[in-house]
């Protein structure tokens, strides 16, 4: 076999492709098990009934979501079926409004508006509770989603996307669940440093 | 001229037209950063962005199809199988793209239901088109695949390039099926979505453009088939050898296990290798032929393709591909900088090169010369490089101030968007975008009037 013979390189191309494809298939099987809801990296949808925070894990050497005690959304504890319905609906709202074409999720999407991976944990919601006169973070988020132009605080405003009350609650549930995913430390030290520090 | 080559001309014309829509909506997207209340209540950033990135995919896809239809009859010595269906689907494809664009502009969104995904909007980056349109794209891809594979079967002969092209149509069609599902679990959704975006755009498209450029180099410089095919096999081995697991650099932060940090980092760091190979090949061929060709614009656009692919896809990709840095650069304008350079270098320059190759024969020109192509070449490339540099300034400001210092919160995001470095980058991007748009106008004018402005040596009767 000579190096200037195309057949040599053809055999190399086929062998390389097959080996890499087989490795990818095995890794995919393992990864899907980890990222299925209830897997090692992605909590079940019922996590929306619990408190979620984000802290540095010295063993993993990066930030990790921490699942805490009971803290139901909108004061209502939901069962697995209802939690799944909320997450399904939340994702449909996110897709139907093309949220990913302004925001990013896990860093993927457009870059015109903030990343929403850990939006549930954003310290800014404390201020929004006062602005929207809501008595909880989830209520503030829902009110903002339904009438974002009314609560605009910056020249780059979110438009009103005709999000109904049901859709807003489902979206909030989705963002809470999203914040509970182990994203290998992305975004780094979210919410633990403020710009003024 | 064969029916296939006439269809190729139509596809290339449509590609250049949608290139214009992409440029216009890109300018609009850039303008929102400078003037945030622009068209507020009428047309928001997300719609402009969708039109920008979706027409990017469409014009490149049409350009590839035009290129393949151009070379098919020459490779097989006959018309492609089912050419009548391809001719019909061209008009269906164009009409569907226009209808989808009108839906995006005038309907924009619907309620959070499955019906919205079928009729108006799928809301997944790059594949926002509603499902009915996605079915249309899949059909066009299927017929395109049959035009290649069916012709090879009928002709009872196949070249190495056509064999690669034929095999490549299988993942080209299969991976597009990822455009349909709406998986609720975003980690799983993004896992498969990257198969579409990375393995489709960064693997099957790389092979596709590799085949197209191989045919182009043979025609432009008369390089021997044996050399071209040898290089193409090396490129396939390197692209897929590094790119299949290089997919892992998109799996750093989407919830997947942390072994992807090592696997994705290692293999994606090797991804520039095949692109470097293309540069070596291009320089070697150009040197061998002492830069002599009868089609200078096509030749220079081919060189731009090789260098742009290596620098934009390879070097700029390498800059942010290791997880230690990607943790800060991911999801910032730094990524956008790489994206613009990579798409331009890897694909756009190649399609423009094919336009000049096809037009030379279509208009029966002995030589393609003139000055206008130089102006358009310069304005498009300097405009693009300027945008890439500007976005890099903004992106680095984000990586530092928003990610590393600010902790990526809303407050950190807003503060960085108002940071003078970020603002300077976005203003400059719009300016260079205007230069790029001027280059586009010059390109269209050159393509439209090629051979009609200056005296040329005709080698055959015009096709029409």
Mean pLDDT of chain A, as a whole number? 93
Distance between the termini of chain A: 65 Å
Rounded to an integer in angstroms, the radius of gyration calculated over CA atoms of chain B is 22 Å
Topology, number of strands of chain A: 4
Oligomer: heterodimer
Give the H and E element order of chain A: HEEHEEHHH
Largest sheet of chain A: 2 strands, antiparallel
Strand content of chain B: under 5%
Which value, in Å, is the CA radius of gyration of chain A?
21 Å
Helix content of chain A: 40-55%
Biggest interface found: A-B, 86 and 86 residues
Fraction in beta strands of chain A: 5-15%
Strand order of the main beta sheet of chain A, please? 1-2
- Overall shape of chain A: it is elongated
Largest sheet of chain B: none
- Total helical elements of chain B: 16
Total beta strand runs of chain B: 0
- List low-confidence stretches of chain A: none
Summarize, please.
The complex is a heterodimer of chains A (197) and B (464). With 197 residues, chain A is of the alpha+beta class.
Please give a structural write-up:
The complex is a heterodimer of chains A (197) and B (464). Chain A has 197 residues and is an alpha+beta fold. Chain A has helices at 6-35, 80-96, 125-131, 137-146, 165-179; strands at residues 50-57, 62-70, 104-105, 108-109. Chain A has a two-stranded antiparallel ribbon with strand order 1-2. In chain A, strands 3-4 form a two-stranded antiparallel ribbon. In chain A, helix 3 crosses helix 4. Chain A is elongated. The N and C termini of chain A lie far apart (65 Å). With 464 residues, chain B is an all-alpha fold. Chain B is built from 16 helices and no strands. Chain B has helices at residues 3-34, 45-76, 83-106, 114-119, 131-155, 160-176, 186-221, 225-246, 259-270, 272-288, 296-321, 323-329, 333-362, 372-405, 410-417, 420-449. Chain B is globular, with a radius of gyration of 22 Å. The termini of chain B are close together. Classes of the chains: A alpha+beta (197), B mainly alpha (464).
């Amino acid at each position: 076999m000579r190096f200037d013979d195309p057949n040599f390189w053809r055999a190399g191309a086929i062998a390389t492709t097959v080996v890499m494809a087989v490795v990818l298939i095995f890794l995919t099987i393992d990864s899907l098990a980890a990222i299925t809801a209830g897997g090692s990296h992605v909590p079940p949808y019922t996590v929306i009934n619990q408190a979620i925070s984000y802290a540095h894990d010295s063993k993993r050497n990066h930030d990790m979501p921490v699942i805490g005690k009971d803290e139901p959304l909108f004061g209502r504890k939901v069962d697995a079926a209802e939690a799944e319905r909320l997450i399904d609906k939340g994702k449909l709202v996110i897709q139907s409004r093309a949220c990913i074409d302004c925001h990013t999720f896990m860093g993927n999407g457009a870059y015109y508006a903030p990343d929403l991976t850990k939006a549930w944990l954003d310290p800014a919601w404390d201020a929004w509770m006062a602005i929207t006169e809501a008595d909880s973070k989830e209520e503030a988020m829902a009110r903002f989603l339904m009438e974002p132009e009314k609560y605009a605080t910056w020249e780059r405003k979110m438009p009103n996307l005709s999000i109904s009350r049901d859709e807003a609650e489902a979206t909030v549930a989705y963002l809470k669940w999203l914040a509970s995913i182990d994203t290998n430390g992305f975004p780094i030290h979210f919410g633990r440093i403020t710009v003024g520090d | 001229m064969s029916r296939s080559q006439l269809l190729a001309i139509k596809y290339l014309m449509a590609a250049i037209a949608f290139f214009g829509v992409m440029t216009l909506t890109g300018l609009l997207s850039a303008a929102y950063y400078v003037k945030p209340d622009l068209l507020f209540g009428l047309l928001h950033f997300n719609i402009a962005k969708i039109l920008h990135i979706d027409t990017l995919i469409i014009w490149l896809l049409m350009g590839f199809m035009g290129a393949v239809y151009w070379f098919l009859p020459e490779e097989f010595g006959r018309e492609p199988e089912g050419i009548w269906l391809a001719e019909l689907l061209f008009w269906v494809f164009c009409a569907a793209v226009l209808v989808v664009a009108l839906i995006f502009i005038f309907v924009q969104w619907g309620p959070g239901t499955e019906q919205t995904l079928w009729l108006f909007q799928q809301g997944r980056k790059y594949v926002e088109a509603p499902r009915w349109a996605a079915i249309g794209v899949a059909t066009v891809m299927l017929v395109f695949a049959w035009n290649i594979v069916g012709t090879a079967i009928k002709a009872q002969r196949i070249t190495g390039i056509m064999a690669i092209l034929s095999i490549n149509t299988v993942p080209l069609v299969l991976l597009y099926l990822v455009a349909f599902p709406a998986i609720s679990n975003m980690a799983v959704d993004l896992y498969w979505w990257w198969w579409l975006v990375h393995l489709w755009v960064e693997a099957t498209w790389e092979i596709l453009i590799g085949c197209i450029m191989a045919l182009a180099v043979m025609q432009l410089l008369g390089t021997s088939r044996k050399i071209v095919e040898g290089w193409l096999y090396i490129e396939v081995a390197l692209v897929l050898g590094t790119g299949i697991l290089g997919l892992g650099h998109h799996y750093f932060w989407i919830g997947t296990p942390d072994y992807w940090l090592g696997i994705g980092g290692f293999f994606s760091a090797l991804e520039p290798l095949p692109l470097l190979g293309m540069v070596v090949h291009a320089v070697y061929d150009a040197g061998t032929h002492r830069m002599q060709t009868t089609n200078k614009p096509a030749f220079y656009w081919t060189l731009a393709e090789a260098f742009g692919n290596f620098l934009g896809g390879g070097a700029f990709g390498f800059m942010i591909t290791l997880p230690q840095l990607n943790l800060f650069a991911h999801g910032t304008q730094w990524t956008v900088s790489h994206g613009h350079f990579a798409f331009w270098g890897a694909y756009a320059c190649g399609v423009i090169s094919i336009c000049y190759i096809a037009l030379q024969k279509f208009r029966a020109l002995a030589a393609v010369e003139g000055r206008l192509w130089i102006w358009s070449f310069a304005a498009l490339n300097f405009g693009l490089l300027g945008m890439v540099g500007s976005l890099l300034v903004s992106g680095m400001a984000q990586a530092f101030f928003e990610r590393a210092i600010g902790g990526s919160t809303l407050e950190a995001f807003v503060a960085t968007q108002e940071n003078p470095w970020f603002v300077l980058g976005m203003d400059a991007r719009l300016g260079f975008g205007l230069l790029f748009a001027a280059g586009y106008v010059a390109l269209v004018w050159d393509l439209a009037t090629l051979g009609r402005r200056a005296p040329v040596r005709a080698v055959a009767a015009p096709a029409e």
